[in-house]
Amino acid sequence: MLLKEREFNQEIENTNFHWILDEGLFQFDDEDVVLFWTKSELKTFIDTIEEVTGAESVRVVLETAGYRAGKIISSFYAKGGKSMQEVLESLPNVYTATGWGAMEYKNLCLEEKRATLSIRNDWESKVVQAQGKQESGTFIGGHWAGIFTGLFGETMWYKITQYSTSEAGSYKEVELFPSPMTPNENIREYIQSQEQQTIMQLEAMVENRTMELKTMIRELSSPIIPVLDGILVTPIMGRFDQERSDDLIEKVLQAIMDHKAKMLILDVTGIQAMDALILSTLEKLTQSIQLIGAVPMVAGISPELAMEMASKGIYLKGLKCFATLKHAVHYANALDGMHIIKKEDESL
């Protein structure tokens, strides 16, 4: 082969490296290739992808990319006119010559379509070590599974059966075997796990937000208001569930103790319809108030609500009931031996 000036050719282990410097061309077996520094450029490339997509995403992507690239490589060597055994036996030397690591078969059985490949000081382990990780990596294993899949015409997969690293280098063994597992299955499983994780995160956010809203509603819907010495008012409004009912009773009893109140007025002006749970809440609440020595009263029962309660047979027996909160406050004040008078105009 006649070479041009600044054109170089080198054959190593039956593989050809070709440079044409004036054209910026570097070829491996007549295909364009490019070199990367392993521990700097290649590491930075993978680090950047991990930063954007996450380490688990990169693991699946590299495995899938390795597998697909391996299938492409297998078709390239299958066209060379060599037998499958010749191709398979030559590949470890080819990859060793191109800097993928020192590779050789520990065993290779064409009949069973199985192999175990030993690899020392591969580029992927160098990147992983530079990242400060302990994993074996997924690209090379997936790549060889793709090569075997393409050559045998049957789905093959891999397993890392041994992996170790030290300052002297790395060592791994890759077992290759027929399997229904493919990167497509891994991607689907990964996507499903990511979707499930997203759903769980959203459910947790909704649950947290719901709890916050429930707490806010409880605080806003049933405030306990001191109106005069010894007299508290609690507006009852909105819908009730068992949790809110229990919380209201606990909060009212604690407020009576804290304020040393003698009377508590339950203002039901905001209740449009008296259901069984609200009635049960009022009964429990008034009985609990009486048990700690205070006097319960009910205010704000409108004519419409009174008629509805009567039609349903709901009667608040033994309770002082008032049409308005003003009447209830006046009564409670009088019960305490006091009354409200209008202040005379001092200018007269």
Describe the fold and architecture.
- There is one protein chain.
- By secondary structure, the protein is α+β, with helices and mostly antiparallel strands.
- It folds into three domains: 1-35, no CATH class; 38-193, H-NOX domain; 220-335, 2-Layer Sandwich (Transcription Regulator spoIIAA).
- The protein contains ten helices and 13 strands.
- The strands form three sheets. Strands 9-10-11-12-13 form a five-stranded mixed sheet, with helices on both faces. A four-stranded antiparallel sheet has the order 1-2-3-4, with no helix packed on it.
- The mean pLDDT is 86.
- It comes from Domibacillus mangrovi.
- InterPro entries: Bact_StressResp_Reg (IPR051932), NO_sig/Golgi_transp_ligand-bd (IPR024096), STAS_dom (IPR002645), STAS_dom_sf (IPR036513).
- It holds the Pfam family STAS.
- Keywords: Phosphoprotein.
- This is STAS domain-containing protein.
